[in-house]
Request: fold
Amino acid sequence: MEKILNIMSLLKDQIAVITGAGRGIGQAIAIKFASEGADIVCIELKTEFAEQTAQKVKELGRKAWIFECNVADAAMVESTAAKILETTGRIDILVNNAGITRDNLLMRMSEADWDAVLDINLKGTFLVTKAFCRAFLKQRSGRIINIASVIGLMGNAGQCNYGASKAGVIGFTKCVARELASRGITANAIAPGFIETAMTASLGEEIRQQLLKQIPLGTLGQPEDVANAALFFASPGARYVTGQVLAVDGGMAM
Reply:
């Protein structure tokens, strides 16, 4: 039975690199991919952030590696990518998930908070994708999945930096999709809405109720909802899908 399940796995023996894999959406994607037969490379700012994810991947019978890296640091990204490729020999899937928020109204937003969010969310996606691009081109295959946000589609007061970074991720994804399509490489984006993670756990009950009124399905999403969308983009079923943005938002942006 185990052998039959392994054969049926959508990502059998593929290698997936996931940034920000330590918790929330990144961890859910790592576990989902591992459950479908993939080995997982966790990139985190601190290695201890990803230890739980790696353990869960190993419990599913798959390999897991952890690499410490600040995705906004070009030299560190290049060095880490080289180490990963030396260790694994190749990668099949790249998920750019690392992201931060520094919310404030525009008139109160500091330049430092603007730069921090753009550096991690947008520049980080650019640097990591660029670092693995040559490997994908040599293989003439690969799946790039960028985690954007519904805020990049519809905006939100107090999140000018975050919205700009995620709108940038969407534009970046479309450009990459056009550049790499001739080599059999796809690039797609997921735009999560409000998902139950540590980022949303700090919201007060009043804000939570206000959010729920904006969501046609009437509930916050789960990290697994985003992981399921990522699995589709990584799977054979998405062979002919590139340059797309899938909103996983309960209907907020429709």
Observations:
- The radius of gyration is 18 Å.
- Residues 106 and 158 are 7 Å apart (CA to CA).
- Residues 111-139 form the longest helix (29 residues).
- The chain has one domain: 2-248.
